Amino acid sequence: MTPSLVLLFFGSILAFWVSTICGGGASLILIPILNSLLIPSIVPFALTLGTASNSASRIIVFKKNINWKIFYWFVPFSIPAVLFGAWLIKFLNPIYLQLSVSLLLLANLPEIFKSKTDHRLNEKPYSNFILAILGFLSGLVSGITGAIGLLFNRFYLNYGLKKEEIVATRAANELFLHLFKLAVYISLGFYSESAIYLGITIAFASIISSFSIKYILPYISDLLFKRIGYMSMVIAGIFLFSNSVNKIIDQDHISVSSSWVIREQETRISWRESDFILEYSWEEGLEIERPILPQELPDQLKLKYESIIQKYDKVLLEKVFRFRKSVSYEFYCYKGSSVTKFEFSE
């Protein structure tokens, strides 16, 4: 564990440096590292313990730059959402939410190439209602994954805040979220001794990062700050997408294979204990097929199946879905080394 703590410590310092310059993202950078050290349901606790210290230290360093209007509308609506999100951990797989977050981050790709004028045209203060909605959504996502920084970075960038205001206001908003989340995770039992050690390691690294970054930030222009912010969102989205997809493939036993059946190429997708088959032809278009059991057939086709099964060694059944067409059923009838295909409408 000691080498992992050392690597996590120095990696966290670098991550929080990058996070401040990019306008967020240390949490999403650290999630893949923590996923390799902890089970997914414990990761939010370790992440929150470390990032709470980072938010507190940033408030101390940039306390004069906090936008209190955003704070007063953001925090009250985010706190109940955190409780709801933490409760949902019992029923949701955080990996699937991380996959959704990665897709939202990748959607920021066009923002990287916008000019200074385009960015200024997008800048406008949001209404109090929008601030409240954003606060609720950030609390919900944060309660489930333990991270919100980069996902809501676009909101801060489009609000028209200066880079120091973004750092300070986000830190003030997130500190209360993090403290509340820690209490919720502990009450629900979503923590472990290893998670505490890792969280404390991240906390020390975040404090060092916050007090040292103030000497770097003044040398970065607001436009460059925004470009780096959007770029970091896209990069984090790529890594988070890759990590999430790999974990989903592993835990749900997803596999893809192709084969030829009666002169037709089929692509079979296996997910958990289910198989889905994709088939494309110029005549029929795209088809989605699912293997079924005889008892899943409509009553009129059950009689057809009973008569056919007596003539063949085995009969495999598939339910076929086509765009804007009625559902049909395919019977693959095997006798010796030959196979015959029959298709019936529902």
From TrEMBL:
Keywords noted in UniProt: Cell membrane, Membrane, Transmembrane, Transmembrane helix, Transport
InterPro entries in alphabetical order: TM_pro_TauE-like (IPR002781), TSUP (IPR052017)
Location(s) in or outside the cell: Cell membrane
Topology in membrane: Multi-pass membrane protein
Transmembrane segments: 30-49, 70-89, 125-152, 195-216, 228-245
Pfam families the record matches: TauE
Family according to the record: Belongs to the 4-toluene sulfonate uptake permease (TSUP) (TC 2.A.102) family.
Name of the molecule in the record: Probable membrane transporter protein
Organism of origin: Leptospira haakeii
